[in-house]
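Ticket #270: bound-state structure for zinc ion.
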Amino acid sequence: MIEKHTNSLSLRFFQNLLKYREICHFVSTRSGGFSNPPYDSLNLGFHVGDNLETVLKNRERLAVELEVPLSNFTTARQIHGGNVKIITEDSRGKGAFNYDTAISETDAMVTDTLNICLMVLQADCVPILFFDPKKRIIGVVHAGWRGTVQLVAQNTVRVLKRKFNCLTDDILVGIGPSIGPCCYLVGQETILQIEKAFDNKREYINNSLGGKGYFNLWEANKMQLVQMGISERNIEIAKVCTRCNHTNFFSYRHQRGETGRFGAGIMLRI
Ligand SMILES: [Zn+2]
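RESOLUTION: The complex was predicted; output attached.
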């Protein structure tokens, strides 16, 4: 990932996606917004208890910096699930100005429609961006441990292949900042579900202590994609832990649940 400072914001970008003029993408940080603690300051989530007008101001600031009208953003009511929705013209702007109109119950969105900025929101969960430059298809995924064990990243690739005829060789992926294997301590119940999802393999759990262990969300998601046929060299992992870097990113764990959300988004523009 590289960091760029615009007029008022500090944004991050995947190097493997930056060279394509036909898309615009970003990962936002928590600086440059208007929200007060514990949402300070660029909270983009309407659903976390922050003042709604302030969230709107934050989103407008991001939209201005990206030169993408906020009315072109589409967001979802994320539920830590495994399903994927295909977004079409009639969903442009859903969830952009309020939570009620957001795409219901999905953690992954895919589109081939121009000028729809698909955005997922997170604070420790991992955002994943997809782009197929040949077929001109984009996708976003929000995956915490629940979405990861429900194979939401793999489900997204399946939709790209089946509905849009994407070839896995062509698909580029960016795995964004999230809680890292340094900090993501999970309990026995979660470990059981992770093992079940990944054929009893324990390679994504490190340093098990007293039934607990550190879960590697980045590897667990990357390997899902590799298993689908995506080349490792097409996958860029930010390797930025949101908990270690809680001054730059919202971290649910660091702030014990009361915090804002940063965004990750992608849009086809030509
Ligand atoms: Zn960490």
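RESOLUTION NOTES: Residues 2-179+231-268 form a domain with the CNF1/YfiH-like putative cysteine hydrolases fold (CATH 3.60.140.10).
TICKET STATUS: resolved
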